[in-house]
Amino acid sequence: MKGFMIAGVSSGIGKTTVSMGLMSLFENVSPFKVGPDYIDTTFHQFVTGNKSYNLDLFMMGEEGVKYSFYKHHKGISIVEGVMGLYDGMDHNLDNNSSAHLSRVLDLPVILIVSGGGKSTSIAAEVLGYKMLDNRVKIAGIIINRTTEVMYKHYKEAIEKYTEIECIGYIPKDENFEIGSRHLGLLQAGEIDNLKFKVEKLKEVLMKTINIKKLLEIAELGEREKVDNPFENIKNRYSGVKIGVAKDRAFSFYYNDNLELMEELGIELIPFSPITDKKIPEVDLLYFGGGYPENYAKELSDNIEMMNSIKEYYNKNGKIYGECGGFMYLSSGIKLLDDKYFPMCDIIKCSIEMKDRLDISRFGYISLHEDESFVGRGHEFHYSKIYNIEKDSRECKAVKPNGKEWSCVFKERNCRAGYPHIHFFKSLDYLDKIINGQIKE
Q1: Which ranges in 90-188 belong to alpha helices (H)?
Q2: Angle formed at CA 337 by CA 333 and CA 343, multiple of 5 degrees
Q3: What's the CA gap between 209 and 206, in Å, rounded?
Q4: Residues 6+ apart with CB under 8 A from 215
Q5: Helix intervals (H) in 209-359
Q6: Which of 231, 258, 370, 438 is most buried (CB neighbours < 10 A)?
Q7: Strands 180-181 and 3-8: what pairing?
Q8: Are 82 and 37 in contact, with CB atoms under 8 Å apart?
Q9: Cα separation, 173 vs 285, whole angstroms
Q10: 323 is catalytic
Q11: Per residue in 180-190, is it b (16+ CB within 10 Å) or e — as a string?
């Protein structure tokens, strides 16, 4: 078995660029992303042709991340880290960080360090990462945004003082840069000439990365099989049909969530709120996250689709919406330029886009309904709720630090709110969504 993690000394160090480049060097890659991110996984899939899976200790638990990692392993597993190597929920070392996950999965780490503005000090930086937790296997260093001459200079210092081998570098090149917007990177399908960027990156890395050494580091040996934690509930929802909104506006779904639903016997039927005129015949509509604000006019103009959804709802149809899906189910969305677009008007409030992250409603949460824990997820949004005509929020989001707020709206058989939920640790919530409960 082969695999390794790509981690950085900080956010913005170029992990996604390096990950895409290294993934392009191998065949039959199994890509993974640490944490709740939906964007980086689209790049992984673009490069490898294989689905990318999130590995999140808070939302999935150790058993869940191990199961997903080993279930989806192919020729070589490459895990892209999140933020800096040790950055997580708090300052403990068991804080759901990339380092923490590398220990849980017993993966070697390739640490990305930025060149420029330093000399021997780069060795002190690497040494600090090595010494903070000696259980973390930092097995190789890649220096990003540097030259061949400076790479040799950095390599000498790092290997002299840290005894960690440098396995290559990536030169600074605007062709490798990926655009961004408020939720992070642009999605893979939105970037012109991405194929060219990846091919150019691969061409360079074939010359600047010690691939033989990287493969040596990646050798994990034989690993024990991980049992399916959901084996005893297979086909629990046999015969249930769920319509999944999937198009340019709604694309934020955890692949493990969708696969778990299928494993539980659910038939998933994709449809597009942008282009389709009516919903499919289903038992539940699932609107995931995405960028409805970027397609607000198209969504609002598709009156036939919204009427189809409202007709279904008025007949006690079950609906579930997360973040972007919640925004679509609201009365309407006001953009930064103050243009307002009416939406489905099932949840009696409106949404206003902001130019900054809503830090007051951000991060990992546990979800509670009727004072009982029902699941785990996270919130991350650049919009706020305003003009609440009817406040039907009956769920509570609780952060690990104890902060809490009202979150999910419940209208008849519709549940919708900002939280993104991972079902591995939220089976009770999934059951509530699927079974529904009329409440006038």
Answers
A1: 98-105, 121-132, 148-162
A2: 15
A3: 6
A4: 2
A5: 211-218, 255-263, 296-301, 303-314, 324-329
A6: 258
A7: unpaired
A8: yes
A9: 44
A10: yes
A11: eeebebbbbee
Q: CA-to-CA distance for 226 and 106, rounded, in angstroms?
A: 14
**Shortest CA distance to 21 belongs to which of 174, 296, 209?**
209
Q: What is the rounded distance in angstroms from the CA atom of residue 424 to the CA atom of residue 426?
A: 6
- Helices and strands, counts by H and E, the chain: 13, 26
166, 323, 349, 395: the catalytic one is: 323
Tokens of 28: 């039959």
Region of 265 on the Ramachandran plot (φ > 0 left; ψ -120 to 50 alpha; else beta):
left
d(CA 394, CA 425): 20
Only one residue has tokens 């997903």, namely 68
- Encode the chain (440 residues) as per-residue pLDDT tens digits: 999 999 999 998 989 999 999 999 999 999 999 999 999 999 999 999 999 999 999 999 999 999 999 999 999 999 999 999 999 999 999 999 999 999 999 999 999 999 888 999 999 999 999 999 999 999 999 999 999 999 999 999 999 999 999 999 999 887 776 655 444 445 555 556 788 889 999 999 999 999 999 999 999 999 988 999 999 999 999 999 999 999 999 999 999 999 999 999 999 999 999 999 999 999 999 999 999 999 999 999 999 999 999 999 999 999 999 999 999 999 999 999 999 999 999 999 999 999 999 988 999 999 999 889 999 999 999 999 999 999 999 899 999 999 999 999 999 999 999 999 999 999 999 999 999 866 55
* Rounded Cα gap, residues 185 and 295, in angstroms: 18
Distance CA 237, CA 431 (A): 9
